[in-house]
Write a structure and sequence with these properties.
- The structure is a homodimer.
- In chain A, about 50% of the residues lie in helices and about 10% in strands.
- By secondary structure, chain A is of the alpha/beta class.
- Chain A is built from 14 helices and six strands.
- In chain A, helix 9 runs antiparallel to helix 11.
- The longest helix of chain A has 22 residues.
- Chains A and B meet through helix 2, helix 3, helix 4 and helix 13 of A and helix 2, helix 3, helix 4 and helix 13 of B.
């Protein structure tokens, strides 16, 4: 599999942004992560004031064989039903995109049902859901490659149509289980510190889920040094696709706002495959899902929002679009000490 | 001093909002604090879908006698200079208000200089700055009353002009010191756990600041059971004014988004004077200023943003306007399980 080259972060432009932040009429550093974000966006895009007009969320949907183990509070058919909800504009992500002025692209990466030719849905089904990772590998190497390359193709298509910043979204009943497997494999932390309640399993359900993650890791023995191996053995098609979106976006110097637990699992895979992706990632929020903080720490990402979200779909990432816009506006529009005639620090 | 009556939080409308959240197409509770916020806004306003069209930040500016002790990294004249920056649209708060579609009202509550009759500036100077609280009371009882009643008057004026939600902003070189005094007095925590670097004093400066706060509390002995006593002895005119804004807004069922360290000190005073104010308050963010988390805990408020802000001006509060809008839109626009034909939890 040949992945696109990712340019180095543009340190020169980032430094110009940092310099400008230091002469704006506020104590240096007092806008905290917003200042860092404006600097990061400059370094990603190569523009002092990163253009952010065209905002897109790519929602990748897929099913998971591991649902046979009873790991989710919702039945599998909800994946398909929610795809229709996205297309009809009724889901949380649609509401937040209308507010943020972002467009939604829904992609079937591996839902366990056939869709008609529906406007707004991109058809890239790799298979009718993954195999049950609790008894063997979730997918073949060929399927993982196909899914990653599809993610790259999908984001390239959006970039051709005009995309300045992308948010990653997911839909897939059962997908906190593969995400927990990936997180546990890549961070080295035990499943009981990583797995959470997902859509809302009870204590019994959580216990079962943890034991499924433990079993999946025992049986499959994914190699943490080999992100492709981890993805094939304990991943999902939407996770693979989102890793591709991240790699594709980074290769074209577009900022990627990473949503919650599932998107961050995809980020672990993306950075495992292409370490140069890391500086192009922006963490939107810290989920209530147990292992999310550890995953963000592993990736050296700091979340912006503290909202106890655990929905996915890209909801947290699209909420963070407002903050990305704030960061660039601050850098562009604030007066300097000199312009405003304000005295500097004594 | 006669304060306006504050109605009880509208539990019936809040319950309707909670009911609706539970049938929208997402796992119940998965939008975390956004769900709570939509419920709170319903209970505050009495409308299931709280109107939020007219957003206003009220920035109150004042000077502080305690700057004579060298507690700030910036000279006092910056208070006046920043007032001009607000009026000219060059400050961070102006940028964020343009993005959020909010208007700015700047109020001179006690800047140590005379302003001409400048369009956009409301003149309510109580005095040319407070007295030095390190050697005696910051203000008289009459001054504190005047400042609080002014805050109520200012917000009422804005409500008459059309205001659906208000953010509190402050400007006053030195004002983290009175805020730390208030926080320490009201929470009972020692100054060294509360005081922070403000606009950016160094280690030596921080030590001095802590000792000033300790001395102010020792000399003035503010009574934590008596918010008025605390305000007079160790407060500030902008802090008193913002407490008035909170009381006035709550009395008219308008939601108040509380900014950072200084605004939260004002909230401690407001809730001390009128405990019914509490349910009308929304905490925007948790500042890096040391004691802010403890103050929020004391008020039973949970912050929404995690941005390491420490600027004031209402910047964090105006950033949170986007989230308030998201909360109401989610409640109003999302499809229910029934409407979307999505299966419920098993």
């Amino acid at each position: 599999m040949i992945l696109p080259t990712i340019s180095d972060f543009d340190i020169t432009t980032a430094q110009l942004a940092a310099q400008r932040q230091s002469v704006l009429t506020k104590p240096s550093g007092s806008l905290g992560k917003l200042e860092n974000l404006s600097i990061q966006l400059a370094g990603i895009t190569g523009f002092l004031y990163a253009p952010l007009d065209q905002k897109v969320v790519i929602i990748m949907a897929a099913d998971h064989g591991v649902t046979a183990e009873g790991v989710s509070a919702y039945p599998s058919e909800v994946t398909r039903q929610m795809v229709f909800n996205f297309l009809n504009g009724g889901a949380a992500i649609n509401v937040l995109c209308r507010q943020a002025g972002a467009r939604v692209q829904v992609v079937d990466m591996g839902v366990a049902t056939d869709f008609e030719n529906i406007p707004g849905l991109a058809h890239h089904k790799v298979a009718y859901g993954t195999k049950n990772l609790a008894i063997g590998p979730a997918m073949t190497n060929a399927q993982a490659e196909e899914a990653i390359l599809t993610g790259i193709k999908v984001v390239n298509h959006e970039i051709d149509a005009g995309l300045d910043i992308v948010a990653t979204g997911d839909m897939g009943i059962g997908n906190t289980t593969p995400s927990a497997c990936i997180a546990s494999a890549m961070t080295g932390l035990p499943p009981k510190q990583i797995a959470g309640r997902g859509t809302g399993v009870d204590d019994q359900g959580l216990k079962r889920k943890i034991s499924i993650v433990e079993r999946a890791l025992e049986i499959n023995k994914p190699n943490p040094q080999d992100a492709m191996d981890v993805l094939c053995k304990v991943g999902g098609f939407e996770i693979a696709g989102l890793a591709g979106v991240m790699i594709g976006a980074a290769s074209q110097r577009k900022p990627v706002v990473v949503d919650g637990f599932i998107s961050t699992a995809a980020a672990l895979i993306a950075v495992g495959l292409s370490p140069n992706v890391q500086p192009y990632l922006i963490a939107a929020h810290c989920s209530v899902e147990n292992g999310h903080r550890a995953m963000l720490d592993h990736l050296h990402l700091e979340p912006l929002l503290d909202l106890n979200l655990r929905l996915g779909e890209g909801t947290g990432a699209v909420l963070a679009f407002h903050l990305a816009e704030s960061a660039v506006r601050i850098l562009r529009e604030m007066a300097t000490f000199e312009e405003a005639g304000v005295s500097q620090k004594e």
